[in-house]
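Model it.
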Amino acid sequence: MKVIIAIVVVALLGFVGFKVWEYWTQTEGDKPLAGNPTGEVRPTSLQGLPPQLEPRLLEAQRRGPDTFKEFIDSIKKSPLVKDPRLAWIELDYVVMIASRDPAEAKRLFAKIKERTPPDSPVYPRIKSLEKTFE
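Modeled.
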């Protein structure tokens, strides 16, 4: 009888150990990448805007929607500025003008959404703003 109880106890310990190991490997796989622990996209990490334009971008954002719009219009002409960073900057502008000019914000949002593919790093932000601007 002692042998049967010992076999059952060893089998239960093995089963519990396996389940703990399985749970641990599953939670390890669910962790975001080490380089970005929150899983969120940082705008400065996106490609498409030369580093020398970063200070001008921050200054234009700080000065308000009119200056920001002028900045966006000027950088769109440059072949160095492109998506996904351009889309992120334009989404910042859309959010900035949403309360002042909702019709324009919706129009611009639709244009940005149309040109942004689902595999873009900006796409999760578009999905989060979608209900607001449609």
